[in-house]
Amino acid sequence: MDWTLVLTQAINGLQLGILLFLLSAGLTLTFGIMDLINLAHASFFMLGAFICAWATLYFDSFVVGIVCAILGTALLALIVEKTVISHLYVRDHLDQLLATFGLILIADTAVHLIWGPAGLAIPLPSQLQGQVRFGELVVPTYRLVIIGVGLLIAATLYWLVNKTRAGMLIRAGASNRQMLSTLGINVKLLFTSVFILGAVLAGLGGLLIAPITEASIGMGNDIIITAFVVIIIGGIGSIKGAFVAALLIGFIDTFGRAFLDTIFALFMSVDSAETAAPAVSAILVYLLMALILVWRPQGLFPPKLR
Amino acid sequence: MPFKELNTVMKKSLFFSAAIASLTAMPLVATAADIKIGFVTTLTTGGAVIGNDMRDAVNLAVEQLDSTMGGKSFEIIFEDDGFKPEIGKQATEKLVKEDNVDIVAGYIWSNVLMASYKAVTRADKVIISANAGPSAIAGKLCHENFFSTSWQNDQTPMAMGELLNARGVKSLYMMAPNYAAGKDMVAGVERTFKGEFAGKDLTKWGADAQLDFSAELAKAKASGADGLVVFYPGKAGGAFIKQYQQAGLSGQLPLYTIFTVDSLSLPNLQKANMDGILGSEMSMFWGPDLDNPTNQQFVAAFKEKYNRYPSHYAAQSYDAINLIASAANALDGDFSDTGKVREALMKADFESIRGSFEFGSNHMPIQNFYARKVVADDNGDWTTSITKTVFESHQDVYAAECKL
């Protein structure tokens, strides 16, 4: 076994997991606290990437791009929450799915009209373009940046949710919403803030991955399904669960793609291994979800008293 | 109350503007042309990048022909396939039945073409592919009413295999999406490449296509191959090139591409400073610097009008319109007899951007294939430049299976 390769793949898996976490953190909060299924979360992922790309090209600075993207997604999230989402909290899940799917179509078309169908590339500062060497191991610098930023955000979220008053309200909302409002807490304000927080996290995820994959129309729609798998495995409403499940899925997906064909080739022909491996690695994530749901239908870390 | 009045005024003016809008939205059928050509391509979704380039080239051809062919006026009716076979088929049926077009052209995607071509041939009309070249329609399912101004899918990867031999590549790693065309491309390279495969990866494709290739790139690097071939059309191509460079493979593992790097992706790659792509080679039947008068004229006019290089998609579409015009000239603009239209098209009697060429028995072009390299032009813009001829007058391998 080539340990450098295994280690490289572990870092790749970690990076994918971090990215999934950024997307699912907001999703699990809105689903857990507001009982809102928000497909349009994917659109904030895309909008974060596009605003960042546009501002980076316009102001010729990646940092300015990031700031613009955060402020931009926050503002858009505020508008969307006030005009559309706030009316959906009392509706059932099917209405929410339909309405937020409509939002996706609007966002995709708006991006097409504003930036064209081609998508945008984000130029990275040259110090982020290179690679970092640890002996034999060579890792793209930018992937380390994603991991670092992601871990920092995860730590901040942990502190925010577990150590602050706002976090206490969020946890209380995830556990028992009615009780929270009976106690005189401004639930409306809480909902708006959580929605914006979630959207900004999704936008951050989008802008972090865009220098690798480019900002493209519908880029969030490709990954939102996996994010739903993450929050189901992690336990809906749990930030900790989302973190653990996102890393788990990041590793499983990466290692599946990396080593499954070699493993399959041990007991079948190389040709059929090469055909079977991509198919099987594509369903590994869902297989994991099914297994975990059999064992723990509530997910790994469900919020207490629900 | 003033508010109420304001309200009524607004309602009235709204009604008025809506009425005007509905009037202006009525189709302008007054300018019915003598010849109608349907053109099906992708004008929405991410695939619209390609479709726009094709449409721009068609419009350039129309402008240069002054909307006249064979002494008759003509018009193009564009239809969007939405990147989906079923929508492409509906659009084709609409063109044939409702618009009653004389000829249908376009088609980027092999699966859209396969779903649509029967709607045209059944009505005994001619269909011209300006891109898609699936093996079936070149071989067993070939049809007398089908023509192509592009290539058959296998030809470009076969040229790639030959190019790799010429470059002395002994051990190859190849990556492609896991769908029909991806597998065709791998098979095509295998037909001509004489070295061995150090590894292959077929990655997830479709609506949730894989765009992060970190795991595969790490494998490719560890495999010890001395060449990497990829086929990633559309947005996945740009993503791949970025990660190839970010992984630091530019100097170590030479990159060869098939339908991945073109004038649609290069401006974006240049904006992102992906200079690792400079010097990388690809195989193609055409290039913007291909040295013949028609091509020079086409590229110059396209750049003049749209301020960018045309892609091969544009070149093929431009050829499609000029091929139709050649038939119209031979028949004085009378497309009523499909047999005569076929005969006229078969001669390929027009100035093609690839120089003169002949149609094979299956109506696929018999043409040269070249190696192209990514370079910066005199203005510093990134483009491709032809380095050598790989195949001369190459015919696809499926022509033998065609019973025409």
Show the helix and strand layout:
The complex is a heterodimer of chains A (306) and B (404).
Chain A: H1 3-34, H2 41-59, H3 62-83, H4 93-115, H5 126-129, E1 131-134, E2 137-140, H6 141-163, H7 165-175, H8 177-182, H9 187-213, H10 221-234, H11 239-264, H12 270-295
Antiparallel strand pairs in A: 1-2
Chain B: H1 2-24, E1 35-41, H2 48-64, E2 68-69, E3 72-80, H3 85-97, E4 103-106, H4 110-121, E5 126-129, H5 135-138, E6 146-148, H6 155-166, E7 171-177, H7 180-192, E8 196-203, H8 214-222, E9 227-230, H9 235-246, E10 255-257, H10 266-271, E11 281-284, H11 293-306, H12 312-330, H13 338-346, E12 358-359, E13 365-376, E14 382-394
Parallel strand pairs in B: 1-3, 1-4, 4-5, 5-6, 7-8, 7-9, 9-10, 10-11
Antiparallel strand pairs in B: 2-3, 11-13, 12-13, 13-14
Description of the structure:
The complex is a heterodimer of chains A (306) and B (404). Chain A is an all-alpha fold and 306 residues long. Chain A has a domain at 11-216. Chain A is 76% helix and 3% strand. Chain A has twelve helices and two strands; from the N terminus they run αααααββααααααα. In chain A, helix 6 crosses helix 7. The longest helix of chain A has 32 residues, at 3-34. Chain A is globular, with a radius of gyration of 20 Å. The mean pLDDT of chain A is 90. In chain B, helix 3 (85-97) packs parallel to helix 4, helix 6 packs parallel to helix 7 and helix 12 crosses helix 13. In chain B, strand 12 (358-359) and strand 13 (365-376) form a beta hairpin. The termini of chain B are far apart. Chain B is built from 13 helices and 14 strands. Chain B has 404 residues and is of the alpha/beta class. Helix content of chain B is 40%, strand content 20%. Chain B folds into two domains: 35-151 and 291-366, Response regulator (Rossmann fold, 3-Layer(aba) Sandwich), CATH 3.40.50; 155-284, Rossmann fold (3-Layer(aba) Sandwich). Mean pLDDT of chain B is 90; it is low at 1-6 and 22-30. In chain B, the strands form two sheets. In chain B, strands 7, 8, 9, 10, 11, 12, 13 and 14 form an eight-stranded mixed beta sheet that branches. Chain B has a six-stranded mixed beta sheet with strand order 2-3-1-4-5-6, with helices on both faces. Classes of the chains: A mainly alpha (306), B alpha/beta (404). At the A-B interface, helix 1, helix 6, helix 9, helix 10 and helix 11 of A face helix 2, strand 8, helix 8, helix 9 and helix 10 of B.
